[in-house]
Amino acid sequence: MTKSMTGFASATGSADGFSWSWDLRSVNARGMDARLRVPDWIEGLEAAIRPAIQKTVARGNVNLTLRVSRDEVGQGNSVDPDVLATVLASIQQIEDTATNEHRLNLAPTSAADILSMRVISDATRMDRDTKPLLAELKKDFTSLLTAFDAMRKNEGKALSKVLNAQLVQISKLTKDAAKSAKNRRDATVKTLRENLARVLDNTDRADPDRVAQELAIISLKADITEEIDRLHAHVSAAKELLATKGPVGRKLDFLSQEFNREANTLCSKAQSKELTAIGLDLKAVIDQMREQVQNVE
Fold this sequence. Notes:
Elements: E1 7-15, E2 18-27, E3 32-37, H1 45-56, E4 60-70, E5 77-79, H2 81-100, H3 111-115, E6 120-122, H4 131-201, H5 208-221, H6 225-242, H7 249-269, H8 273-293
Helix pairs in contact: 1-4, 4-5, 4-6, 4-8, 6-7, 7-8
């Protein structure tokens, strides 16, 4: 199943006196790059979730952010007397210096201001066992990753529909080009024969075989049979890739470049307004397809 490299999932949870929020998103990239921002005080968390991401995502720039907070001050939290004493002494020193040396009157310091200075001792960062929290986060992350991958699959289905529709357009335009080339070839052969006869009638020195050879070379250079055949082959190959399980983005990207190369060659050999118009339409559809392919894993 085709997957998109673009995905997003978020979740919140709480357990064991903690609350948390997840944010997992990815965008297209040439390779696989997973950047994790998780609390380092939860031992073993990153080691547990990184392999799961790498197993699920084969290609893309993945960013995961986890924010964990302790529930409101209560059990397991208390004012650290040593830290509080240090903070109060520092505040007093600042106020004395401002008043006596600089003649400044500072606004009174509130209890909320003091609390913001981390005078609360948090058992989560000290002697508390974080294994129960780790277990809850691992379970929650599994659900998050499942939702994230489901979105990428849904995006992939939509991409497949768009790409298959574009391949149908390319196939039709290729058939139109083949038909136009056949009509052009019949007219070209007639013109070449008339020109050959005119040259031979107006000169005594022209070598008929050499003239015929030169005209044949001109005709060969204008032939687009190989380009038509390769375009048909590329369409079949692309359809097979879209029906293949696993990452196919790199192969589709390479194939889209081949599509573009054949369309360019076809345009350069066109030598008719009708075939040139078809070639330009081909290039437009192929460019649209190449843009979509950039999002395929």
